């Protein structure tokens, strides 16, 4: 049996049957806010060390956290479909989400309140005794918020940024519709996987009746004691090349609508890797495909990870040291007129599954469902990810081992101020 609006599954629908979504969100946000308290008070009898404030990341400011923030070890990403029919209900949800995310980032965890009455607990409780673990929550708006199935649901179609395009279909894409797109995105990052998942779970609870999860993906990074560049599941260092000038390559400036200035555009791609087949290839071949030495991370022909790419270097036979179709050559800014993106990629491992995707000449069958959850931020996806990946999708030697199975593009506005909410300049009024 399907529960009615505002009625949690498995509970009888008593009292007024059609409370407005706006009042529902105000009540939900207020209930969570009332239940939230300092982390120390949620754990009576805790030792002074346990009660001490752990490391946190700021939530309010100019830019949303989780973009230029030093990358945390875990992520939980979710894309949502909107169910709300009125802009005011969407604004109320974003205000409730902003309040909850800011509190969780500060380590103020809601106390389960099931014993206080018949209502469900205000918080699921799995992060009750955990520190905030540098939690950041980054919100994004997808194309469907502005126009969906030809309908301008919230009167916002005219305010859709030109850069928020429908991503083109790239060579080799085998995108699963049920794991792509979305009207809203939430990326939670933390140094504890349960803290990241808890954040998205609580926001999904608050969104009941106005938004529902469309697809989700978790990811992880290895812990390195030396703080060096992490390795991906094919064993190569991932993220060596990053832009130096974030104002030029990541943050939206005067060219964007006012509500996006100081924000950025997120591209999310789930990339499955044929690990079994990669593992059967020679080291020399692997290094030629990537264009770097596996152990050091140095470009081929160089000695240090951060040596510049020598794309003009040739061997004694006159062949390029870094092959024309090597991954790093095709991803390099020099190959795309200086185009750069900020990578925040994570490995993912979802067990095993049937390989229904294209991987010629590899046979189909049960294989690891694992690979790279690629997240990148840029000032404009048309001159960033799209420009770079159009060439890579056609010529990258790594393509014989990878398949893109999920995709999304989201406009991540600037951060909220302490008395406001994320997206307020877009959603308020009108």
Could you explain the architecture of this structure?
The structure is a single chain. By secondary structure, the protein is of the alpha+beta class. It contains 10 helices and 9 strands. Helices cover 20% and strands 18% of the residues. Strands 5, 6, 7, 8 and 9 form a 5-stranded antiparallel β-sheet that branches. It is globular and about 75 Å long. The two termini are 38 Å apart.
Oligomerization state = single chain
Distance between the termini: 38 Å
Low-confidence stretches are: 1-53
Question: Helical stretch count?
Answer: 10
Query: Helix share of residues?
Result: 10-25%
Largest sheet: 5 strands, antiparallel
Mean pLDDT over all positions: 87
Sketch the topology as an H/E string, one letter per element: HHEHEEHEHEHHHEEEHEH
Number of strands: 9
- Secondary-structure-based class equals alpha+beta
Strand content: 15-25%
Rg from Cα: 23 Å
Characterize the overall form: globular
Short note summarizing the structure:
20% of the residues lie in helices and 18% in strands. With 430 residues, the protein is of the alpha+beta class.
